[in-house]
Amino acid sequence: MRVYNLAGRLTLGVGAEAAVDVETASEGRFTADPQAVYARWDDFLAWARAYRGPATHVVDEALLLAPVPQPAQVFAIGLNYREHAAEAGLALPDRPVVFTKFPASVTGPHGHIERPPGSVDFEAELVAVIGRRADRVAAADAWDHIAGFTAGQDLSERELQFAGSAPQQFNLGKSYRGFAPIGPALVTLDEFADPGDLELGCEVNGRRMQQARTADMIFSIPQLVEYLSAVLPLLPGDLIFTGTPSGIGWARQPRQLLEVGDELVTWIETIGRMRHRFVAAQR
Ligand code: ZN
Questions:
Q1: Do you find a cis peptide bond into 181, omega within 30 degrees of 0?
Q2: Distance (Å) from CA 46 to ligand 1 centroid
């Protein structure tokens, strides 16, 4: 099942590129608010799986917004792929490296993103979306708490990320306006042959920069849910950015960072692709 935010309205995929407006098709049982559905995810799944009506909309890429536009919490994991830890010159972590991208940095899968001054880098990532409150959940039960996946970019301004005396705080450098694009759809786990092994990557101006499989993660998504939910509850509609593979611009020789005018395309198999262009930031 594919769930979209089409021009601000909750939309259910029906067939390849067709869809229905959920509020209309459900006769008001569910509102049009794409964020509100996660608090009623089980009800929604039951309705959506039984829906047999016709498609009423075409999924116009240009109208797609973030499938989870206002998450209460956004968790992000650093150094979660072995080759990425190596390119960063760091030892493999013995527990997840956790930071946040503040929720107001979330944006949609297409369009322009302001490039602030500094060293702006790309990080293609699989993003897990919480569908059921997860409080002290064991890894063995964790998949039951995931609504599905979307693609994400953990955009990062490296100078602010690493500024100041140790220990540096990543959060602000990863939370500029538009620095957490997600999309193009929320895709439920039953759509994947193996939700633990997906190909993902990104290109800058048509040049392949990252390409890897999520099976190479150090801490699996179930392990991350167990680790995080031991500390605090994960809420319906929360996001977990699960880490980026190797190939980031900051670790390249010479460095290859995002400049004004660059186009960044990010994809994950089965989920789809996002396309963004960087524009000068307002002063
Ligand atoms: Zn990241």
A1: no
A2: 33
Specify the pairing of strand 124-130 against strand 64-65.
unpaired
Task: For residues 220 and 258, state if they share a domain.
Answer: yes
Share of the chain above pLDDT 90, in %: 92
Mean pLDDT, the chain, rounded, equals: 96
Q: What is the CATH number of the domain that holds 105?
A: 3.90.850.10
- Give me ligand 1 centre to Cα 223, in Å: 17
User: In which domain, by residue range, is 200 found?
Assistant: 74-280
Same domain, 42 and 85: no
pTM: 0.97
Query: 251: which residues sit within 8 A by CB, 6+ positions away?
Result: 87, 88
Claim to verify: residue 168 and residue 45 sit in the same structural domain: no
d(CA 38, ligand 1 centre) in Å = 24
Indicate if 220 and 261 belong to the same structural domain.
Answer: yes
Indicate the number of domains in the chain.
Answer: 2
In angstroms, what is the span from residue 59 Cα to ligand 1's centroid? 29
170, 235: one domain: yes
Which of 122, 272, 106 has the alpha carbon at shortest distance from 205? 122
Q: Are residues 121 and 179 in the same domain?
A: yes
Distance from Cα 27 to the centre of ligand 1, integer Å: 40
- 243 alpha carbon – ligand 1 mean position (Å): 4
C-alpha to C-alpha distance for 43 and 62, rounded to whole angstroms: 29
Distance 152 CA to ligand 1 centre (A): 9
CA 221 to ligand 1 center in whole angstroms: 14
pLDDT at 151 over 90: yes
Distance 122 CA to ligand 1 centre (A): 8
pLDDT at 88: 86
Q: Report the separation in Å between the CA atom of 58 and the middle of ligand 1, taken as the mean of its atom positions.
A: 32
pLDDT at residue 86, as a whole number:
87
d(CA 14, CA 16): 7
pLDDT at 283 > cutoff 80: no
What pLDDT sits at residue 282? 84
pLDDT higher than 90, residue 167: no
